[in-house]
Amino acid sequence: MSRSLALRAGGALLALALVAAPAAAQQQNTQGQGTEGPAGGAPEVQSVVPEVGDGRGGMNNQVPETTEKQAPTGGERPAPMREVAPTPAAPITAPPPNTARGDTSADEMELQRTLRGGVIEGRTTLPDTAAAILIQPEGRDWREFRNQWLFWIGAAAVVGTVALLALTFLVSGRKRIEAGRSGRSILRFGVLERVNHWMVAVSFVLLGLSGLNITYGALALRPIIGPEAFTALTFWGQAVHQYLSFPFVLGLFVMVAVWLRDNLPTKVDIAWIKAGGPVAKGHPPAGRFNAAQKALYWFTMGGGGLVALSGYVLMFPFTVTDVGGQQWAHIVHGLMAMVMIAAILGHAYIGSIGMEGALEAMSTGRVDYNWAKEHHSLWLEQETAKAREAVAPPSGARAVGAD
Ligand code: HEM
Q1: Which H or E element spans position 134?
Q2: Structural domain includes residue 248
Q3: For ligand 1, is residue 211 a contact (CB within 6 Å)?
Q4: Into how many domains does the chain fold?
Q5: Mean predicted confidence (pLDDT) in 238-255
């Protein structure tokens, strides 16, 4: 009796459990479609755009409109909710890097205009006080100069000059000594003049090459020799550029001392230019230096002086100028350097393959008598007059046995 009672009670409990389990499960599911959690246990995704009709409650918690025919619900059951695909979030694209920004917003343009000549500066305890400058609008102009103008002006000056000289050589060939070599020579440059000239020339060439590497190396050289070799070359190039500035400047001072007097302009220069200068028919008279050589001398002194001054401003940054001064120093240095390289290329051409008999003036120091007569006739007259004077007996002296 008690056994059958126990069995009956167990069966009743099991039946209850079987009925209760799906009911509980349904209850859970119905709650899931409500305001609290994700439906059907789906992971909750936070959308960054305003969501409509996703069943999340609030104003947007509406059943989406549909044109589909709804099955009759018998009044109690809510219409089945249409599955709505989550609205894809628009990808957030990072702003382009500062340097590549093409358009400037109106606000930014306004700020730039207001700041012209000024800076936005913070405070710093670093020894480098320039590190406190946050915005300096002229920096953009300077960067454009460095990356665009200097790049193209330099390329045009250097490549253009080389092309022009090559063309000149192809068309006119080497300028010969018309009368041919005489076999006699005359001293044109002493040892000091020659040693100093080559000191300046070698420094200039190495300064020019290491400088051009700063401007064009990353583009023209790095892809060929590779980044490691390029880094080493640029490191040593930088050292060369700084240390060779000293012999270069010293040489310029010596040039002032030894050549200034012979490079002062005279009436002869005007006549030489009027006669056609370097392309004149015949050989217009010239002193020790003709007008073109004098122009190159003054250009080298002025340009070399500017390049040296601006170079030292760059070498010791913020010693005598602020950031604007540094930018100006760089502009002057870069432009002057490019123009000087072009001018000195022309000088080196005439002094070597362009004109017969010219190079020996700076190698042995002596030039052929006919060369001197054709290119520097007044100087030759002066030199021969001096030589005659040197060997002539002093005035009033009488030859031995004259009486
Ligand atoms: C006293 C002589 C000179 C000094 C003190 C000097 C110094 C400097 C310094 C400090 C720089 C900046 C290097 C850098 O950006 O890190 C520079 C760049 C440069 N220098 Fe000179 N330099 C002198 C002469 C010359 C000469 C004679 C030439 C040309 C033949 C020259 C051509 C250049 C060039 C092309 C640059 C690179 C400009 C650029 O692309 O930014 N320099 N120089």
Answers
A1: strand 133-135
A2: yes
A3: yes
A4: 1
A5: 98
